Each structure stands twice: as C-alpha cells, then as structure tokens.
Amino acid sequence: MFNVLFLCTGNSARSILAEALINDPRVGRGKFKGFSAGSHPKGDVHPLALETLRDARFPTDGFRSKSWEEFGQRGAPQLDFVFTVCDQAAAEPCPVWPGQPMTAHWGIPDPAAVQGSDAERRRAFRDAFTVLRRRIELFACLPLEKLDRLAIQREIRDIGQK
Fold it and tell me: Which CATH number applies to 2-159: 3.30.420.10, 3.40.50.2300, 3.90.226.10, 3.50.50.60?
C-alpha cells in the first residue's frame, strides 16, 4: 500500500476529489491510501465537490479541509507520492516530507474559481473530476513494483501532461 498526498492551495475541491478517487477501489485498485491537504486551507470542502462525488456514487463522509503541515509532523503517514493539482501550490515552497516521496505536478484548472451559471460551475467540477480520474487510473496501472525510482518519476510526471 502506497501513501499518496494531493495538494492544492485551499484543499476544498481538486485535492478532495483526487483523495476520493484514489481511495476508491474501482479507481485506485486498492493499491493506495490517499490524503489531501492545502497550503492555505479554506476550512470547508466546497459543496460542489461533494455533490460531484455523490453524483458519481463516491462516499462523501470524512472529508475536511486541512493544512499540509499535518503531513510533515511526527506521527503523520510516511508519504510515497505527493502530487500538486494546482499551479499556485506547485509554485510554493513545500514542507519537507518524511521519507522523500516522489513528486509531480498534475495541474487542473480550479473549478471553484469558475464564474457563471450553476450548470457551468457543475460542469467545471465534473471536468476536474474526469481529468483527475483519468490520471489516477493511469497511475494505478503503473507496475510500481517493477520500475526503478527514475522510471516511476518519469511516468508520474508524464501522467500530469495527459
């Protein structure tokens, strides 16, 4: 089981969606324990993120907006992978993660920033969910036990371009 942390600035939408996706056995294939955090957490999970998960028949219990500092403290899970899912968090200096996890940037436009009708806003969340799902499915298909560290690093960076 690999521990994976998804980061964004607010930890209210994209990183929450990614956490839900990777923890679902249909997507993460039972190979991962996913977490999410933010550099400046909003404090609440965006309601449309939860609605998107419910509409896709994913559990919505237990999600909370939290700081990435929780994962650099004593007793935090040792991380194997850390993915930034927003450009702002990718540009910030991250904490030092115990265990030297592999990192990659998987930037996704912020659905919470979309202005427009309710339908347009919901579509932005569905689009983010779809892109994250595709990337996580690709990640879950990697034969991690057969690849060396450099090959894994190359693969996870490439996934962020898809």
Answer: 3.40.50.2300
